Amino acid sequence: MQLENLFGPITQIGYLTDDIETTAGFWTQTSGIGPWTRMSGVSMAATMDGQPSDINIDVAITYKGDVQIELIQPLCDSPSPYQAYKEAGLWGLHHVQFTTKNMDASVELAKSAGLEVACTISQGGGVYNYLRGPGVWFEMIEASKDLEMFFGMIKSACDDWDGNELIRDITL
């Protein structure tokens, strides 16, 4: 069973980093993508492996075509999909994301494909589920109209980017 057949195209590729500025600069230097929209100190209430957890991250987002590239810098040691990677110093590709219009149905499909819901986050008008499989993480998002509009503004900035201002900081 292929996940793209279940969930549609990949909408995001997520990377963990210990230094967003250096990683964003390298991405831009090697692939020409940008600008990056950075949100610092993002706090998220989550449920990780059935237990409540408060996650704190810095995040930067850009686009390559229609695919969102996300850089995540974990700032805490609380239980999260990022914790073990941070502790082991494993920086790089972390997950791919699919967008759904029906989270419940998509989660059931994921479970039938052998994935488990490891973490659920409600943040910024969206519901995110991190799905864990053998050696792999998938993120499923059910985006609200507001979140879709927010991502659309970031994508528009990327489509019109003139190569200046590598990172644009915003406050949520």
TrEMBL record:
Gene3D superfamilies documented for this protein: 2,3-Dihydroxybiphenyl 1,2-Dioxygenase, domain 1
Domain VOC: 9-144
Cleavable signal peptide: none
A Pfam family hit: Glyoxalase_4
Protein name: VOC domain-containing protein
Source organism per UniProt: Candidatus Micropelagius thuwalensis
